[in-house]
Amino acid sequence: MIAAICLVVGVVLGVAGTRIVDRVRARRLVDDPEPGERRRIAPAVKVVAGAVLFVGALGGMLYGCSQYLGNQGKTLKAYFHLVGRGDAIGACALLDTNARAKLMLLERAASCEDAVTRLHASLTPEERDKLADDDPFINGVESAGDHKELELTSANPLHIVYMTVIDEGGRELIHDWR
């Protein structure tokens, strides 16, 4: 949804930029017209200037959107990195009570730290490296009150597609995933 909004804004900026360039170019690059002639600018100059502005605006918008989405997933990324490195205490610190209970149930462990240790041990060295070193790509964010649902587009060793994070006492914690 955010990516679509960014694309629309980029297109609008590209069109507006083309019209501005038309006015500037018409004043600066064309000789004074003969009496009775209208001032015209070469179509190629319009196309090139419009394309440059459009690509620049679109690139800037997409970069800004990806930065925004990336910042929304800081807790998710930290969790992935900690699990990949086997830091059970750090990973558990990012989980709320619900997420800890779910992880302990899935890993059949007596504590959250044991669950993260088992999860880490179940991964191949390549999967651990991917979690520890790579950032998952966040495709979308939906917010409702103190909950945010993050949608991931890249495949990850934990096979998480959606993750819900909550604001608990000023800290963002992982609440659930699927």
UniProtKB/TrEMBL annotation:
Keywords: Membrane, Transmembrane, Transmembrane helix. The chain crosses the membrane at residues 41-64. It comes from the Bacteria. The keyword Transmembrane helix applies. This is Uncharacterized protein. It comes from Actinomadura rayongensis.
